[in-house]
Write a structure and sequence with these properties.
The complex is a heterodimer of chains A (245) and B (254). Chain A is built from 9 helices and 10 strands. The longest helix of chain A has 16 residues. The chains are: A alpha/beta (245), B mainly alpha (254). Chain B: Keywords: Amino-acid transport, Cell membrane, Membrane, Transmembrane, Transmembrane helix, Transport.
Chain lengths: 245, 254
């Protein structure tokens, strides 16, 4: 796995409400360059929303987001999102385009690469995730695991400084999870800055550098994985771990 | 058997049919196609604009689209064609210097078609999963680019059958421009059949016109069924198990 030009991402006191529903209540999250932060917690705790706020798919009501120490709230959000790759639970590949076109679309339209150049780079990314031979297939003809690896290649093609994973393996059949998690672990080892929202406690424990436990829109506890998983301090985290482990 | 002979003569008088067929093919067919194709194209463009307005975050744009659609879907086509074709003809004459009613006929058909096509496009675009827009925006595409490159192409694909149905309907409605009064060379299929019927008192020319309409519309109907089927099942392609997963699991075909 190649080295990445990754960055440091910080969310400070992030708040977000949908009407009366206070989804994020002052979240702080710091992800040091080249490290992997996993975010765990019960469903509805705001984990996925946090990712969408950190790349400004949803604008926060309050708080700040810093990339390499500089606030990005005043930047063009489209340009910010070019610097942050995102992988979704439901893959969200573009079904009307071939696999290679899924990966090369942003290269052509946003990076303004020529068709041939974009295709060459896209094929390189597909090779990295082991799916070069599927370049001209349609996403619908791939397994879920393959689709998710294409989605990862699509995000990586933009040479992001940070990668977000939103429950990337939750929609996969159990036997397909391993391949995707292995790829994510490779990225982490390669020095990509990653924020991983996950229900995979094994991944969280073994791959991530820090673990953040969220519940009801707040960070209840965070720290290195050994501390979170072997010496939880709060009852809420103890209760959550006993439920999922 | 007199009655049967009489009926056969009324509907299937080959002589009368043969007399009208050259005009149907040489004059009526191109004119009908001009009306239907032009208003189909303009109606689709205007319809797409209405669909984008209909799903816009701007309440004003949504309202304009809503009111437009309600009006032009709610009126009989013949009324719109007459009101536009007659009401705007002084202006059209001023601008084009011609008495040809086709520009106004096409305009009226376009306005009607756009209302229906706008609703077809809107339902198609709205049926595209939210995750598609989200994934496109997450890559760094603007809202407009995401719609243009990712959401709208998928939405239109899903409603192609409904769209072709609308074209069929437009092809038939094009016959209504005869109400505007057409010079001999401007007559479309229906008007030619109708004139011949009026001259001869025999219905066979209209039957011939009907057959010509069917020759145009029936293949379109079957084309709809074909693409509908194709969209449902997709192009057949062999699925293969996930190679990476195969050693781990049973090689599922998720």
């Amino acid at each position: 796995m190649t080295e990445f030009a990754s960055g440091t991402l910080t969310g400070k006191n992030l708040h977000l409400s949908f009407g009366h529903n206070h989804v994020l209540r002052g979240i702080d999250l710091h992800v040091e360059k080249g490290t992997t932060a996993s975010v765990i917690g019960p469903s509805g705790s705001g984990k996925s929303t946090l990712l969408r706020v950190m790349n400004r798919l949803i604008e926060p009501d309050q708080g700040d987001i810093l990339l390499d120490g500089r606030s990005v709230l005043k930047d063009n959000p489209d340009e910010l999102r070019q610097r942050i790759g995102m992988v979704f639970q439901q893959f969200n590949l573009f079904p009307h385009k071939t696999v290679v076109d899924n990966v090369s679309l942003a290269l052509r339209k946003l990076r303004k690469l020529s068709k041939e150049q974009a295709r060459a780079e896209a094929l390189e990314q597909l090779d990295l995730v082991g799916l070069k031979h599927k370049a001209d297939s349609r996403p619908a003809n791939l397994s879920g695991g393959q689709q998710q690896r294409v989605a990862i290649a699509r995000a990586l093609a933009m040479k992001p400084e940070v990668m977000f994973f939103d429950e990337a393996t939750s929609a996969l059949d159990p036997e397909l999870v391993k391949g995707v998690l292995a790829l994510m672990a490779d990225l982490a080892k390669g020095g990509m800055t990653m924020v991983v929202v996950t229900h995979e406690m094994g991944f969280s424990r073994n791959v991530s550098d820090t673990v953040t436990f969220m519940d009801a829109g707040v960070v209840v506890e965070s720290g290195p994985p050994e501390q979170i998983f072997t010496a939880p301090r709060t009852d809420r985290l103890k209760g959550f771990l006993s439920d999922v482990l | 058997m007199d009655l049967l002979d009489q009926l056969a003569d009324t509907f299937f008088n080959w002589e009368e049919m043969a007399k009208v067929i050259p005009a149907l093919l040489m004059v009526g067919l191109p004119n009908t196609l001009i009306l239907a194709v032009a208003s189909g194209i303009f109606g689709s463009l205007l319809g797409l604009a209405l669909a984008m307005m209909g799903i816009s975050r701007n309440a004003g744009a949504r309202w304009v689209a809503r009111i437009y659609t309600d009006i032009f879907r709610g009126l009989p086509a013949i009324l719109v064609i007459l009101v536009i074709g007659i009401g705007l003809s002084p202006i059209a004459r001023e601008i084009t210097g011609s008495r040809n009613p086709y520009p106004l006929g096409i305009l009226a058909l376009t306005l009607i078609a756009a209302a229906y096509i706008g609703e077809i496009f809107r339902s198609g675009i709205q049926s595209v999963e939210k995750g598609q827009l989200e994934a496109s925006r997450a890559l760094g595409f603007s809202y407009g680019s995401s719609m243009r490159l990712v959401v709208v192409p998928q939405g239109i694909r899903r409603v192609l059958p409904a769209l072709v149905n609308q074209f069929i309907s437009l092809l038939k409605d094009s016959s209504l421009v005869f109400m505007l009064g057409l010079a001999a060379s401007d007559r479309e299929i229906f008007r030619i059949g109708n004139d011949a019927m009026a001259n001869t008192g025999n219905l066979s020319p209209l039957v011939a016109a009907g057959v010509l309409y069917l020759i145009l519309t029936v293949p379109l109907t079957h084309f709809v069924n074909f693409i509908d089927n194709r969209l449902r099942t997709g192009k057949p392609e062999k699925k293969e198990p996930d190679e990476l997963a195969a050693p781990i699991g049973k090689g599922a075909q998720a």
